[in-house]
């Protein structure tokens, strides 16, 4: 099936007002999700899956500002050595950050999301919640291929702001004024012949710090059955640069 796609010319630059920045250009020291072009974050990502641990670095950067459908958007790129890079089309709206499309390096055009996908609801307030689709990161089949369960299996995750103004320390340093956002989902799997189908909890905890953005992420997919194994992901900020 051919995916519908759209393209934005790289040379189309516009002086837009970043909604989170109170209409001031450049970096905003109060934003929990900076989108200023030139911003760059490097993370250490430790994955425990299938009984083995691995560590790699992931880099996220804001490439530029563009315009699509008469409205501004920001191109945010994620890169991991040895994997395909992905560009995300993000918009800063009064009610939060939303994703409207994505493009992998092997694709000529970006594929529009069926509907805008909330990345972070704003303004942040304890108890605020939203839903967005996700896939399992570390759940593996033991005796079937493809072993990764994430292919073709999506599930809705409910995110809730559980705390504001927390402090935490990661390799990039110590940070204050951080929001803790917890995502919870359930994945239905045939775990074994005795128990049959069961709901497996999936949890993501994210910390967003003012003026920096995402500083830490923990993903838990605990599962050990005759047919499946689970694991965890720990993502911590190593260094960052703001324009």
Polypeptide structure, described:
The protein is an all-beta fold and 243 residues long. It has a single domain (5-241), classed as YmcC-like fold. It has strands at 5-6, 40-49, 52-68, 71-79, 86-93, 96-104, 110-121, 129-134, 140-141, 155-170, 173-192, 196-209, 213-224, 228-241. Strands 1, 2, 3, 4, 5, 6, 7, 8, 9, 10, 11, 12, 13 and 14 form a 14-stranded antiparallel β-sheet that branches. Strand 4 and strand 5 form a beta hairpin. The protein is globular. It starts with a strand and ends with a strand. This is Lipoprotein.
Task: Summarize it.
The protein is an all-beta fold and 243 residues long.
Throw out a few tags for this protein.
14-stranded antiparallel β-sheet; Lipoprotein; 243 residues; disordered N terminus; YmcC-like fold; 14 strands
The counted number of beta strands is 14
What is the H/E order? EEEEEEEEEEEEEE
Return Rg in Å.
19 Å
Number of domains: 1
Low-confidence spans: pLDDT under 50, at least 5 residues?
A: 1-25
CATH topology label: YmcC-like fold
Estimate the mean pLDDT confidence. Answer: 86
Tell me the helix content.
Answer: under 10%
* Major sheet summary line: 14 strands, antiparallel
Secondary-structure-based class equals: mainly beta
Specify the number of helices. 0
CATH architecture level-2 label: Beta Barrel
At the first level of CATH, the class is Mainly Beta
Strand portion, in percent? over 45%
First-to-last CA distance: 41 Å
Q: Give the overall form.
A: globular
Protein name: Lipoprotein
Write the layout of secondary structure elements.
Elements: E1 5-6, E2 40-49, E3 52-68, E4 71-79, E5 86-93, E6 96-104, E7 110-121, E8 129-134, E9 140-141, E10 155-170, E11 173-192, E12 196-209, E13 213-224, E14 228-241
Antiparallel strand pairs: 1-7, 2-3, 2-14, 3-4, 4-5, 5-6, 6-7, 8-10, 9-14, 10-11, 11-12, 12-13, 13-14
